[in-house]
Amino acid sequence: MIRSVVRGFGAHLPERIMKNSDMEGVVETSDEWIVQRTGIRQRHIAGEGETTASLGEMAARQALERANMTPDDIDLIVCATSTPDNTFPATAVNIQNRLGMHHGAAFDLQAVCSGFVFAVTTADSYIKSGLAKRVLVIGAETFSRILDWNDRTTCVLFGDGAGAIVLEAVEGEGTNADRGVLTAHLRSDGAHREKLYVDGGPSTTGTVGHLRMQGREVFKHAVGMITDVIEAAYEATGLGSSDIDWFVPHQANRRIIDASARKLGIDDGKVVITVDHHGNTSAASIPLALNEAASDGRIKQGDLVLLEAMGGGFTWGSVLLRW
Ligand code: ACO
């Protein structure tokens, strides 16, 4: 049986850091309020010349290097983003060109904060169906560009960045027998649109628009939706929380992460947290967290890794994989 195995990982963050104390000069807020409600202490903000594609390119280059591959080896790029450089062409095609790659295919996938989970699931489906052999899966965002910097209820929550992994088709034999993506579960429900959306777009206002959110409403639904897709992953595989080596959730909010882990019975020590220093980077948050935990040696080959995300739409999903 063909498996999609992680061969490389990478990430890139803008150089500029905005601490909570810097936010105090932008809107009426405080470090104490932000830390207490969200766990966020700082975020990276893209500077002049930095775009979703430029951040994505850097993350992709690092993932390729770690995979010991070049762009020639890749036959598909999937980039999860809600903040593309342009309405079109796709940011994935822009990254493909930046990598000097002119073969294969590249496309964007838009599922907001769940984008990376949706992109891994899509790449895995391409690999398992034989349509692709080596896929660069990227999550890249510049949410700072769609924030209303006068709205303290949203602008303190988000940051910019990019992460990437390389997935390769491997015959599940020998040492690879139990590696790769084991199961994935995706959901969406547009009835929740008003709770988290951008109030612009090419077909409505002809503008880019700004992020709007009913924070309490999002919070209310988050833990239930997250546990729903994780329980679906457990049911599909016969595995459970005690088998998980690393829980790598979408990094929206420390309180949502803690409540989800508690409800699922996942030990604190198995949870990868980056929201404190990255903020919510939407589709980039999971690959940024994977990069951090795999770079510092926490996530090792053979570890069972659980990914989950929930975001605008609403969309939500889980991926269970063996690293
Ligand atoms: N600084 C200081 N005060 C603030 C700020 C701020 N940045 N933002 C809001 N407040 C004030 C409000 O004006 C309100 O004041 P009032 O009582 O005088 O009216 C008070 O704080 C409480 O506001 P609430 O919105 O009720 O605060 P809440 O406790 O719900 O926390 C938060 C807000 C952190 C957004 C919370 O609802 C939350 O975490 N929601 C989840 C949203 C989320 O994570 N979204 C990310 C995108 S979706 C995803 O990725 C899953």
UniProtKB/TrEMBL annotation:
It comes from Hoeflea alexandrii. HAMAP family: FabH. It catalyses: malonyl-[ACP] + acetyl-CoA + H(+) = 3-oxobutanoyl-[ACP] + CO2 + CoA. The active site is at residues 113, 250, 280. Belongs to the thiolase-like superfamily. FabH family. Pfam families: ACP_syn_III, ACP_syn_III_C. Homodimer. CDD domains: KAS_III. Its EC number is 2.3.1.180. Pathway: Lipid metabolism; fatty acid biosynthesis. Transmembrane segments: none annotated. Residues 251-255 are annotated as: ACP-binding. It is found in: Cytoplasm. Residues 235-323 form the Beta-ketoacyl-[acyl-carrier-protein] synthase III C-terminal domain. GO terms for molecular function: beta-ketoacyl-acyl-carrier-protein synthase III activity. The lineage of its organism: Bacteria, Pseudomonadati, Pseudomonadota, Alphaproteobacteria, Hyphomicrobiales. The keyword Acyltransferase applies. The last Arg residue of the ACP-binding site is essential for the weak association between ACP/AcpP and FabH. Keywords: Acyltransferase, Cytoplasm, Fatty acid biosynthesis, Fatty acid metabolism, Lipid biosynthesis, Lipid metabolism, Multifunctional enzyme, Transferase. Catalyzes the condensation reaction of fatty acid synthesis by the addition to an acyl acceptor of two carbons from malonyl-ACP. Catalyzes the first condensation reaction which initiates fatty acid synthesis and may therefore play a role in governing the total rate of fatty acid production. Possesses both acetoacetyl-ACP synthase and acetyl transacylase activities. Its substrate specificity determines the biosynthesis of branched-chain and/or straight-chain of fatty acids. Residues 107-190 form the Beta-ketoacyl-[acyl-carrier-protein] synthase III N-terminal domain. This is Beta-ketoacyl-[acyl-carrier-protein] synthase III.
